[in-house]
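ok so for the tutorial part 2 we go from a plain amino acid sequence to predicted structure tokens. step 1 is just haveing the sequence, like this:
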Amino acid sequence: MNPQIHPIFDEITATITYVVYDETGGHAALIDPVLDYFPNSSRTDTKSADMVLEFIAKEKLKVDWILETHAHADHVSGAHYLQEKIGGKISIGEHIRQVQQVFKSVFNFGAEFKVESFNIGKLTAKALFVPGHTPADMAYQIGDAIFVGDTLFMPDVGTARCDFPGGDAHMLYQSIKRLLAFPNETHLFMCHDYPTSGRDVQWMSTVQQQREQNIHVNDSVSEDEFIRRRKARDSTLSMPNLILPSIQINIRAGQLPQPEGNGVVYLKIPLNSV
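step 2 — the prediction. this is what the tokens look like for a chain of 274 residues:
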């Protein structure tokens, strides 16, 4: 059985949240939900997540899973907010512990920081380990669709960066090759889109389109050439605007830090840190 898929695009972070479900009145999984965060005022908002809630209510769905493909550096996760509203189990790859340990040191998290650690109704789902962008990246295969997280982008954009802690261009190449070994007609759903050449936002391609057209990793590109290009490209990239707030929240599965003595929740900004 193939899934029904409802995408919700967040223009600010270029993130696509997916509601994947078996049928109206049935069961659903949410993939990579967004909590709005405005760094200039350091305030959060639930507009994007509430759009998910509206669709869930309209289709009368029961949410079984809230799936994260990885600990995102470019948006804040809405997983915890949505779980409080509609339930569901939050899931991410077990290698998130490696990411947590890296950033526990960066942000000097103390003992209060806990390292937390599938059918969807009639749908059969499978978790695929696809490291490279980070050491904890996951993709989710549901029917004829694979939600690839930050491995591939649309063919004219290419592939994800590999210069975050634990990232590795060799691993990303191997992960992408495993994804592109699926049948040509398999639908691949992106986590982000950054449109080029004035085209509209898109979030779905096929294995065949990626193998023929991806500017970084099509069938004519060797592993050595991909690694060389990826490292050269990554050396020109600045850090994502929301990496410091988003990582602190996302490695907690979307849960905000505990309030301090005055009742206010704080995010940390390390100075002159590597």
